Design the sequence.
């Protein structure tokens, strides 16, 4: 069945009420609204206050064509829209997931907790490096030198990891970074063996770099642009929580066991689980980074 749906955009906005009445009297079944925000499309038309005003003038069905970014956020039904556009499968949807949808998935929480564990495990490398080396028989001067070298490695590691994300993609670069953190923890466990010191530097350099470089790229590749800021903010918060709990956990382990080594073993197991989760939940393809 054909329906007559005159567009409000064609009305004389100086006499909008008269135009609505004329359309009513002429037998229009619908009144069509073309809402444009100047972002999704270059033109700007009108917004929600006009829709609310027209709703009070007519009982005709209001058919709303939303040429705006994130139309689902506009709350159109409360303003009197009768027919709303379907957003599934649109270009906006293709850009990524909403925060509400992402938060309802297992992947979201697994990856968020993974960021927490990476931060906690790799923070342990930095926070306890000097006392652990002195406890293991190295001189205070040597331990201080190792800390200095490790801090330099961390600075270089952040730049290197960014390059690796460009070359390898989000999944392989993330796995490599977490693997380096895992090897760094093994290096701490076996630090009395000289080659293990190299693993510690590697772990601090590329492993700790994930906390700064990794979450934004992982969020963009997994969840897209749509609610990027909100999702990445949560992931960074999880990372901060991991960094905050690490000293308490490591201190408690030291008080109970007289050594940081059991804590390193536990964090290594945690990073092993993260490697498994990243293998499953991170996409293999490279998206925009």
Sequence:
């Amino acid at each position: 069945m054909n329906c007559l749906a005159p567009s409000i955009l064609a009305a004389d906005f100086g006499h909008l009420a008269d135009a609505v009445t004329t359309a009513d009297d002429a037998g229009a079944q619908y009144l069509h609204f073309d809402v444009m925000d100047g972002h999704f499309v270059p033109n700007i038309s009108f917004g929600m206050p006009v829709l609310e005003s027209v709703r009070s003038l007519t009982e005709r069905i209001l058919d709303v064509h939303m040429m705006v970014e994130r139309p689902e956020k506009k709350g159109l039904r409360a303003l009197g829209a009768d027919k709303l556009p379907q957003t599934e499968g649109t270009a906006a949807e293709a850009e990524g997931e909403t925060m509400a949808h992402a938060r309802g998935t297992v992947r979201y929480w697994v990856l968020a907790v993974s960021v927490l564990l990476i931060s906690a495990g790799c923070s342990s490398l930095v926070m306890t490096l000097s006392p652990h080396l002195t406890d293991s028989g190295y001189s205070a001067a040597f331990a201080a030198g190792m800390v200095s070298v490790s801090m330099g490695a961390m600075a270089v590691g952040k730049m290197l990891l960014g390059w690796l994300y460009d070359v390898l993609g989000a999944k392989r670069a993330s796995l490599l970074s977490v693997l380096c953190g895992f090897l760094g923890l093994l290096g701490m466990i076996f630090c009395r063996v000289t080659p293990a010191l190299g693993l510690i530097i590697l772990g601090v350099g590329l492993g700790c770099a994930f906390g700064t470089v990794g979450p934004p790229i992982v969020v963009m590749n997994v969840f897209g642009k749509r609610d990027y800021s909100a999702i990445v903010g949560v992931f960074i918060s999880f990372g901060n929580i991991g960094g905050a709990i690490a000293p308490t956990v490591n201190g408690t382990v030291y008080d109970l066991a007289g050594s940081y080594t059991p804590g390193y073993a536990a964090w290594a197991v945690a990073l092993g689980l993260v490697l498994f989760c990243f293998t499953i939940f991170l996409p293999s393809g490279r998206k925009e980074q």
Q: What stands out?
A: Confidence is low (pLDDT under 50) at residues 86-94. Residues 228-257 form the longest helix (30 residues).
